[in-house]
Design a protein that fits this description.
The protein is flat, with a radius of gyration of 45 Å. It has helices spanning about 1-40, 50-55, 55-70, 90-100, 130-140, 155-185, 185-220, 240-265, 270-290, and strands at about 75-85, 105-115, 120-130, 145-155, 220-230. The chain has a 5-stranded mixed beta sheet with strand order 2-3-5-1-4. About 65% of the residues lie in helices and about 20% in strands. Helix 3 (about 55-70) packs antiparallel against helix 6 (about 155-185). Among the domains are: about 75-155 and about 225-230, Alpha-Beta Plaits (2-Layer Sandwich); about 160-220. The longest helix has about 40 residues, at about 1-40. Strand 2 and strand 3 form a beta hairpin. The chain is α+β, with helices and mostly antiparallel strands and about 290 residues long. Pfam families: DUF4349. Keywords: Coiled coil, Membrane, Transmembrane, Transmembrane helix. InterPro entries: DUF4349. This is DUF4349 domain-containing protein.
Length: about 290
């Protein structure tokens, strides 16, 4: 009987010694979990709205920047100025209109001036980027004599990329603020978030407007075209007779004389003041001699 009891006690002691380390490990894991929960519970929340948003800023900004830089193609704005001397303004204008139709271009602004010396037709033309060089060559060949031509290119890829990246980031911030507005619990937080949303929306509108402007200038180049016809008469080229030229010269001389006469009359205050000053000077000099 004693041997049975002793064997039973030995088995119990062996089982206790085997289960001891496992129970200690379980208790240690439980203590660690409780301590971690306490630490996480004691971490203070972000003190401002900007800190809540800055948590994901680095990852989102970097990914957007790389994506935008890879997808945006080169943006080049082309502009030009041309001055062409023609023999007939109306005929030249008709030729210009035909060339514009062939190249899908249009006139944005038109200004005509007619003086005694010459006629000037100034046109602001918008043409698709791919047809810009073709249009320039067409005007140079068949419209008239080119007096001046100036072509310039402006690469705005860097500006366009920078605005696009900032715009994408602002839209992400706007979505975050809208989500925060739904979860706001106090009036103060709601007003603060709404103010930030309003500012972001204004900045997004400005950025989108700038991008639209750049796209328009890139897709459609601008050409300032001036058609010029000289009306100066010369004895070698003019078909007008001697009598008409004599009358024109006499009229021009008379106009010059009238302009000179009117200019002299405009100086009448000096003609009154100068004699008066001379009179006072002589009178003062005479008194000085008498003394």
């Amino acid at each position: 009987m004693k041997s049975i009891i002793l064997s039973s006690l030995c088995l119990i002691l062996i089982n206790c010694s085997k289960s001891g380390p496992a129970q200690q490990e379980a208790k240690a894991d439980l203590v660690d979990m409780i301590s971690e929960d306490k630490v996480s519970a004691n971490v203070p929340p972000p003190s401002s709205i900007s800190e809540k948003l800055l948590s994901d800023e680095k990852s989102t900004t970097n990914s957007i920047s790389e994506h935008q830089a890879d997808t945006i193609s080169r943006k080049v704005i082309k502009n030009g100025e041309m001055r062409i001397q023609v023999s007939d303004i109306k005929k030249a204008q008709n030729q210009v209109n035909d060339i514009l139709k062939k190249n899908n271009a249009y006139i944005q602004k038109e200004d005509f001036q007619n003086t005694d010396m010459d006629e000037n037709l100034n046109l602001v033309i918008r043409v698709p980027y791919k047809s810009f060089d073709i249009l320039i060559n067409s005007f140079s060949d068949g419209v008239g004599s080119v007096l001046s031509k100036n072509i310039s290119s402006n690469d705005v890829t860097e500006e366009y990329t920078d605005i696009s990246i900032k715009l994408a980031n602002k839209k992400i911030y706007l979505e975050k603020y809208l989500d925060m507005l739904k979860r706001a619990s106090t009036t103060k937080d709601m007003l603060e978030i709404q103010e930030k949303i309003r500012g972001l929306e204004d900045e997004i509108d400005v950025a989108e407007g700038r991008l639209r402007f750049i796209d328009d200038r890139v897709n459609y180049s601008t050409l300032n075209l001036s058609l010029y016809r000289e009306k100066v008469r010369s004895s070698a080229t003019s078909k007008i007779g001697f009598g008409s030229r004599f009358i024109d010269s006499f009229t021009e001389g008379w106009n010059s004389f009238v302009s000179f006469f009117l200019g002299v009359i405009s100086l009448w205050p000096f003609f009154l003041i100068i004699p008066f000053m001379v009179f006072l000077w002589r009178k003062w000099k005479l008194r000085k001699r008498n003394k």
